[in-house]
Amino acid sequence: MPPFVPERLSLTLYRKYRPVGFDELVGQPSVVTGLQAAVKNSRVAHAYLFAGPRGTGKTSAARILAKCLNCLRGGPRPDPCGECEACVSIAAGTAFDVIEIDAASNRGINEIRELRERVKFAPSQFRTKVYIVDEVHMLTAEAFNALLKTLEEPPSDVVFILATTEPNKVPQTILSRCQRYEFRRVQPQDIERRLAKVAKEEKIAVGPGVLTRLAFLADGALRDALVLLEQARGFAADGKLDEAVLDEAFGAPISDLVERTAQAVATADARAVLETIAAAVDRGTDPAWLAKELLRWFRLALLAQVSPDVLGAELPREAAERIVERAAGLPRARILAVLRNLSEAISQRYSAQPRIDLELALIRVVLPGDELSLQALSDRLRILEERTGPQGGGASAVAHASQAQAPKRAKKGSTASETVPDEDTTPRDVELVPPASPLPAAASPVGEPLTLPKLQALWPQVKSAVKDRSRPCYGHLEHAVLVDANPTVVRLGVPSRFNRDLLAEPAMAGVIAASIAEIWGAAPSIECIVVADAGGGSAKTDRVETGAFSLAESVLGADLI
Question: Terminus-to-terminus CA distance in the chain, angstroms?
Fold first, then answer.
């Protein structure tokens, strides 16, 4: 019996159809223009950095540039012939003078020292020696330091091309020595055209909408799109790709469950929310994955309300129209609350109960009245503001709510009145008092005097404003507690005379007073006294929370809370 000889595996589509020239590099016109101009004008730099998402052509562009520099038919030239010995060997990865290094597996200082020694030798075969360092951000700090001098002043016949998906991890000392080219996510329309060309070459029959779906599944990576096309071809028994084949290869979309869940959130139907999550789990859907899909859907809903053009670039036309229709009835405040809660749930990467995390994140949105927290109250204020519409030329929802709850107050000499609907939609006349100056959303009700409970409720925002103005002042303020507050004086308790003397300085006291004025609307004077138990974290937090709910009750009314 003759020995068994395994059949040679065929090349995958993304390797078989890798661009061989700049004219085949899809979706990167600025990169192509810049590199071709550099070669044509003999202004090729000694070091380049190609940065961008995966599968967008960084390594392919590096090989094409190496062909341009080493083409034996009139090179250097911006359009390599693709037929000479240099072009063929570079495309096959067998050229001695084009060295590709995977920095993910050769990331230490010893590998870079070896590279420095090899750089000194002249090219052995072609005109220019090209080093292509892929995933360069994976190099260690010591390796980057060892590369600095060589990268700055390499021999005249050496070119470095560094490629990375995370340029933020590359040290500035390296970035400053390279010409940087940004590779963009390939647009779905460009991916679809490329897939159509490959399908024609491979004689793959595709049904309507198949290539569009694959283009959006690839998420801007042309290489991923070719991999998906090849994977789907393996599931086509009769050789034709249609929607049923894609469902079998990549799973049926659960857009119906996602949209049902979104509808339940829009109508604040807690029972329907839990039922749709249970139905998804029964169908074998991972709750953590469902949470990500819901996060994506509500992000698209926000885009539908804020930026339809961006939405159209991320979804097929039919899907975008469906999102716009569904998002029309969703309050924007509720969308933002869902995005925040889902983001927090997804960030718990090692949660033992992802289903409970998902259910809790959505129930907090549809039943905000059952959760007594400042964030829940803030969400309800935003929804109330959207329900009543814009009033008072940009005044905050808190100011509107306080005017509806507070007794009638009129500015001296003013006779204007305006009809403001109550929560039960029963109209009544309330005399509105415009503030002297626009206040931020956390400001006090108009005309209310400053008191200790109200300042305690706003104290975290005051500290944040202090931090933006002066970090040293914020550091000392962290050790202080509120002792008393009135419209003219705010007294702070500090643990030592050292803190007292520092915070009592005019500059420090001025920062605190200005921050209170920013949040409240008036600037009191600041006094500091030494208090034995100042700096107690738990007691201070309890007072702040109690004061916050006291203020919320005075603004919204006990019945709303």
Answer: 86
